[in-house]
Amino acid sequence: MRLKLLSFHLRAWTHFPAQILLGCGFSGQIPDSIGNLTQLRYLSLNLNGFSGSIPPSIGNLKNLYWLDLGDNRLTGTIPVSNGTIPGLDLLVNTWHFHFGENQLTGTIPPQLFSSSMQLVHVLFDNNKLTGAIPSTLGLVTTLEVVRVDRNSLSGTVPSNLKNLTGVNELYLSNNQLTGPIPDLTGMNALNYLDISNNSFTTSSVPQWASTFQTLTTLIMENTNLQGEVPSSLFGLPQLQTVDLSNNKLNGTLNLGSSPSSQLELIDLHNNSINSITLGPAYSMELVLVGNPVCKQSELSTYCTSASSNANYSTPSNNCLVPICSLNQTSSPNCRCAYPYAGSLVFRAPSFSDLNNSSYYHLLEGSLMESFKSLPVDSVSLSDPTRDSRNYLEVSLEVFPFGQDRFNHSVVSAIGFILSNQTFKPPNAFGPFYFDGTTYLHFADSPASSRSLNTGVVIGAAVGGSILVLLVITLGVYAFRQKRRAERVTEHSHPFASWEPTKGSGSIPELKGARWFSFEELQKCTNNFSEANEIGSGGYGKVYRGSLLTGQLLAIKRAQQGSMQGGVEFKNEIELLSRVHHKNLVSLVGFCFERGEQMLVYEYVPNGTLKDSLSGKSGIRLDWMRRLKIALSSASGLAYLHELASPPIIHRDIKTANILLDEHLNVKVSDFGLSKSMGDTDKYHVTTQVKGTMNLYNLYGILDPVIASGASLGGLEKFVDLAMHCVEESGVDRPTMGEVVKEIENIMQLAGLNPNAESDSASASHEEANKGNNHPYSNASLFEYSGGFAPSKLKPQ
Length: 796
Known about the structure:
The protein has 796 residues and is an alpha/beta fold.
């Protein structure tokens, strides 16, 4: 895809906050006009074929959070401002500089870094950069990952680099650095340190190397080390790999009495070690080939090259693995299917033991959590390897739920989650990208339809010669099957129990809801498995299910002790089937057979408002979003009160019964206590309101999520409205229609558009994430901010 098409994208998407164009096949230069997209928060152009220099105009993108230009063919220098021309040093609010795997030249400009920057990632690896590492890098104390390896950097390492006490991964390897080995004392957060293949002054193993309690990997190959290796080094509790090969180490190697239980590899090949002392707990791989000690025959086991086999593959979940047909693969749940596959590429993982299954189990769980709103059965990881760039590549397969293949929309959704920074891997894996393969087995593929049509034509032509002989046989068979089906229907028809003579009332009159057989719901929930359970209560349990069409369902299955009588169950589904409003959960259908009572609703992925207000869901709700939720909830209730015929009173409104969809739109749910009102008693509903409000110190009792945020326009009027909604006498309370109008007025008077999205959803991200220990924490970059406190609004 050429430059001209990219320019079209830039013109068309001027107001979009994100430009995620990863792996789109672009080539040519990045247009300088990209600097006009001043509202951009995310700019990911990695894994393309861009050439030429980095446009200085990117420095105009003052709101940029994520800048990824990696894995291209970019040349030239890193641009900085000069008074008239912008540069990347102006991006003080940007957290991510990902420029690795290009052909950038020149020095790293000292002006690029300053103490006012918010950077957490500086990835300049695998380029052609020259000159010294600028001392200004040590001013950016927010840094957590630094990769400047595989360049041609020279000179000494700045002494103030040890000020970066939050850095987890530090790569300085494969350069031409000189002078003393850098003093990293105090960098106690280090997990992965690689300073190998440089020309440092000859010295012993530095003392600071034995002090980092979180260190998993120490690589100091070819760094002019001499003397004995301190035994204290091997006792670091998290240590997995020590590579001190190709140095001048000598004397006795003493592994100590209690080396780390995590140790997997000690590589000391090509040194001058002449004896070793092994402790009783020794079990790791030790490589001493090329040392004088290998002349002792009894130590031949340790005198071979290091092995690099990593054979992890997601195991099956205690089930019998089936034999699958061509191109199908067995999932961890032992189901044959066509998975969506690709590679997860991690640019700076914090570990080196690729056989440690605990890391991959964490990654599998994190992936499934990200796919929870999609019809995904399971994920499988395999073949972890370190490539030539020292990136970790892991093969990923995502398996469909409820069918053997995905449709187009689900594959697109999976790709979006993995490519748009909505998926946050566990901290150990760090920054990543996803390189997906082409999916050839869509359930809704036009090619499949054409193949099917061709097969039908061929089958008809071949079968035509014997069609006459089969007509009579098929006719008899069809007649018998019809009679058999009629007999089965008589026993299993959902309305068979509703016979007026048996006191069950007339057959339900449904508007849009459908009947599901028990077998159908059993299949789409994997036999009501515990893994698909998404809720429970006194009535029973709720399960996630998926139809063959890919539609997700929430299936509420009553337990024996809570089941209603036939009349009551019929009344409930009749009531729900005629409720159709954008702010009410839709009833898809029901099941009433085999002694079961199940209600099938649309699936609402973001859970309850209660979970969001309590912080359990990870979604943060600002004042505007809370007003919108209140408005939408009131709109749904106003529909029930004033437009449903006959009117319906919910009678159980609470934050646990208000659900949020993928766009945080409200869906009022759980009509189990609802009551249908006839015209005669429409205005004679009596309720007793419990409790009173302390209106003093109103701002002191606010949720701190909104109390410390932007101006809370309309708060007092909103509280006044809430107080009117809980008046003791029902006649003194406003109708829900009046509540809707008043909230709309409150929002307009406060300068808030009831139809607009929350602008602070992205603007408050930096502040909201200051407390996180890692940029890949559970706090999503795509969280919304917005809600009303659970005790403040009780209009019924």
